[in-house]
Design brief:
This protein is an alpha+beta fold. The protein has a single domain (22-159), classed as Ribosomal Protein S5, domain 2. It is built from five helices and eight strands. The strands form two sheets. It has a four-stranded antiparallel beta sheet with strand order 1-2-3-4, with helices on both faces. The termini are far apart.
Length: 182
């Protein structure tokens, strides 16, 4: 009985889809902390992880070694994965997002345009699975803040169906008032 249960559980686990995540290192910084005996040097890694199908996350971690920092950042990014509403290969509407001093503007583009973005914004968009988009980084050029602002912008996007429903609701709610001429 127990062996049969184990084989059934193993088969069920094997049938589960394995999600492949793309990991991309955005930035590696050397950071120091001043202590009584001198300076302690560590490394900070910023990593974006996504499945190229509407899920993306960012991780920022520190460690004494570069490899350790990257490993920690990847595990944090996988824990912080967020879902993104895509409309085919692009997004459904324009969006502007702000994180600290960084502002990111995203605009849908027609098919075949490609990802028109730079730096951290490009890495996040590609990991999320967006293939056609126009973007602009405004304000700060901090890679971490621009990456977080991009994630916020992608998460705030409403699905295309919701956009159509909102437009139809607004037209129904608007009363028509006729004024009579005397």
């Amino acid at each position: 009985m127990r062996d049969e249960l184990n084989t059934v559980v193993k088969q069920a686990v094997e049938e589960l889809p394995i999600e492949e995540y793309e990991e991309k290192v955005i930035q590696i910084d050397r950071v120091t902390r001043v202590v009584k005996g001198g300076r302690r040097m560590r490394f900070r890694a910023t990593v974006v992880v996504g499945n190229k199908n509407g899920r993306v996350g960012i991780g920022v971690e520190k460690s004494g070694e570069v490899v350790g920092a990257i490993t920690k950042a990847v595990s944090q990014a996988k824990k912080n994965m967020k879902d993104v509403n895509l409309k085919g290969t692009t997004i459904s509407h324009e969006v502007l997002s702000k994180k600290s001093g960084a502002r990111v503007f995203l605009k849908p583009a027609s098919e075949g345009t490609g990802v028109i973005a730079g730096g951290a914004v490009r890495a996040v968009l590609e990991a999320a699975g967006v293939k056609d988009i126009l973007s602009k980084m405004l304000g700060s050029n901090s890679k971490i803040n621009n990456a977080y602002a991009t994630i916020d912008a992608l998460v705030s996007i409403r699905p295309a169906k919701a956009m159509k429903e909102d437009k139809s609701d607004k037209s129904e709610k608007k009363p028509v008032i006729k004024e009579e001429n005397k």
